[in-house]
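Morning, I've got a small favour to ask if you have a moment. It would help a lot if you went through both lines with me. Thanks so much in advance, here it is.

***
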Amino acid sequence: MTAAAAAAAAGPRLAVLDALRGLSVLAMIHQHVGIWLWRGPDPGMDRFDYPGLVLLNTMVVMGAPMFFALSGTGTAMLTRRARPGLDAMLVRRGAMLWGYGLLVNLLTPSWFSWGSFFALHLMGVAIATAPLWRRLSDTAILLAAAAVLAATPLVQAWLQLPPELTNPEMRDTSQPGGALRLMLAASQYSLLPWLSTYLVGFWAGRMIAAGRLRALVVVGAVLVAIAGVGHLAVQLGLGAPDSVLWRGFRLKVGWFPAPIAIVMGLLGPTLWVVAAAVRREATAPLRSDHPLAELGRVSLTIFIVHAPLFRELSRPLGIWSALGPFATMAWVVGFTVVCLLAAHAWARVDFRFGAEWWLRRVADRAPVRSRRDSS
């Protein structure tokens, strides 16, 4: 069976993509929990003396772009065939995801303000505007992603964003533009540059459906090459500090505001991983009840729950920034096991009453309705 045939047989859902979605959300959550619960290095030591926790902290570098790209891939596979009411359904899905994001904002006041723009808000806007994306050609979608990336350092310079954005700055709605400023470029996962990951994922979904996996490898290589050449130019002194070139192609430890070199440098390998996973699916299909696939089916629910659970409830429990490395790792491993067991048990009732279930029940109401739709 070819990759295209595997995609067609699975409809809008491929178990291997669910598994990747589960892995990506775990990577993001592990990084958050590790940072929030660990008390930091002991006297005379630094962070690199704790390789396990350092690894947890770096896992997000692949988790975030893959999470967003897979959202685009799922949308593209869902919209392969035009159906009555499809556009309205996409807008409702996007609106609900935005609503989920606002709920997380309200439940996590130590991290977010009402105007914070995080992962769910980004996916909400991206999916709500999918009626536009699905009407574009494959080339036009890639050009739209390129335009988002090209605009990012220009807008960051125009807004005079600092080289490193702190959490208080990324939730601050008192600046000119208020919440719109945060949505555009000044919050954690603003439209610039992160919408590009969704758009490239949307394009990748089309390529998967057409069996053109080689295109994912080629575009991934182009993204990595551009990121590398741009960073080399900065290293050679062609971009003065605070210039547009410097803002776009410097590499730094801090994640926000994200230079496009980081986004492209991670999005390229994301495409390679997705292509390899789908190619493997053609010869060795992943079972829908694989633990990671089941986890991917509730990744949205887990993502919503983890922030208030570990960011807020850890404080009255006395474990916020209070645990040693072993206790922190124990919490991370324990939460992972609980999520895997809960997802397996929940699958028996089709994940009823989870965030994904409500998304399908409300947004996908007649005339567009399917239990197999990708979230």
Q: What stands out?
A: Residues 366-375 have pLDDT under 50 and may be disordered.
